Prior knowledge:
By secondary structure, this protein is α+β, with helices and mostly antiparallel strands.
Amino acid sequence: MGWFGSANSDAHITIINLENELKLGLYINQIKDFCKTIIPQKVRFDSLDSFNYHTFFISPDEKSQLYLNNIITDIHKSIGFDIKNAHAHMTIARGLNAERMKKASEQFRATEINFEFICDSIHVRKFNEKTKQYSDIVEIIYFNK
């Protein structure tokens, strides 16, 4: 399929994007306080899905979707950001057109998706100029600590 917008990115669920380290510095203590209130939970990803013809992703099961969406929505609210909706997912490819979406769907059609993990922290990442991704973990904030 060639290069696409999420190439070279480790699997992750984006919770919030802050423009720079200064913004992170303004909100990091609020984020840490929020994380103290979250109870870790097992989450399961079990299907493939897409947003129209532009993003192809791995989707969590219904219970995990609710848990993750609540974290995304609540953390935004806790630091004073407005968020209309959340849809937790792990992107495989983004920036696709209809033809590439069809190819992606065909390529992964026979792939069984079934993995789970304990969601117990937020990893704060910063942009890496070499990989052109948010790949450098600068802090891990654990839940309920």
